[in-house]
Amino acid sequence: MSDIEIRKITARIGARISGVDISKPLDQETVTALREALNVHKALVFDDVNLDDEGQQAFARHFGDLTTAHPTVPAVEGAPNVLPVDSERGRAANNWHTDVTFVLNPPQASTLRSITIPPYGGETLIASSAAAYRNLPEPLRLLADTLWAEHTNDYDYAVPEEEVDEEQAAQRARFTSIKYRTAHPVVRVHPLTGERGLFIGGFAQRIVGLSVSESRKVLDLLQAYVTRPENVLRHRWSPNQLVLFDNRITQHYAIDNYDGLPRRLNRVTVAGDVPVGIEGKESYSIAGDASHYTSVATYATVA
After folding, report:
1. What is the pLDDT of residues 169-223, one digit of tens each?
2. Active site residues
3. Which of 124, 226, 239, 264 has the lowest tally of Cβ within 10 angstroms?
4. Is 103 in contact with 288 (CB distance < 8 Å)?
């Protein structure tokens, strides 16, 4: 195993990893060490990674099988597991979310690699939903433990509702070309650590059993704990970086603060398990078949 150095970036989330060349195949001891670091710090930053799309996919495969790029959005040409997060394809996803929670088994982990970065702005915020859960006052925590939320892609978090132009309307239509709805526990139990985290974010649109307006108030209240500054890593991108984050217990937000300048990251995600609440009940699908994206039968028990 390489002499891995792990340096915390903030008290509650984030660590910078050095001493390992992730462009090469990793031995099991190294993978175990990185997994343990991810469990503790939720988001890992690697500098000077010297990766192409193939190398990014190879690194991500150390943590499990890959999903395809996205259930509805096209992949990089010739690389079906790579999603281009590109300013030329639309606005930044400047809304807090966890990747693809509108399907039954969202990715367990996501990797983002810097391709083109603007001279200023364009940071990615990553928040610990485990820290958020720990922050909750006991009455709110007891309430959250009992709640379930419906997640859907039937709105486009990356395009504002007002003043949608023709190109943005086309992007919205593509994003919602298959409509998904899935019910997940508001408090998810991490399958490896047993930690509890608030599993909500932008795709969570309604609390089961509540009206839309009631749901919004409850979700906004809980979400405010996720996005407390002390729970957030603000990552300023540099060339040739890769960030790996645990999609089961984080949310993230791409800040649209770079005046429309070119910005491009490539995303590769690792297939995940079906979320489980504190009583052991699994999430359930309401609408939409995502088997072309990630197989529930194959990945339901993946850790």
Report:
1. 676 776 777 899 999 999 999 999 999 999 999 999 999 999 999 999 999 999 9
2. 97, 99, 252, 267
3. 239
4. yes
Full strand arrangement of the beta sheet holding 15-18: 5-8, 15-18, 43-46, 242-246, 109-116, 264-270, 83-86
And the tokens for 202? Answer: 């932008």
Is residue 144 within 8 A of residue 133, CB to CB? The reply is yes
Q: Which residues pair with 207 in a beta bridge?
A: 149
Q: What is the largest CA-CA distance in the chain?
A: 53
Specify the DSSP element, H or E, that contains 272.
none
**Whole-model pTM?**
0.92
Q: How far is the first Cα of the chain from the last one, in angstroms, to the nearest whole number?
A: 22
C-alpha–C-alpha distance, residues 291 and 175, integer Å: 17
pLDDT per position as a tens digit, 66-108:
999 888 787 888 889 999 998 766 545 679 999 999 999 999 9
CB-based contact 201:125 (threshold 8 Å): no
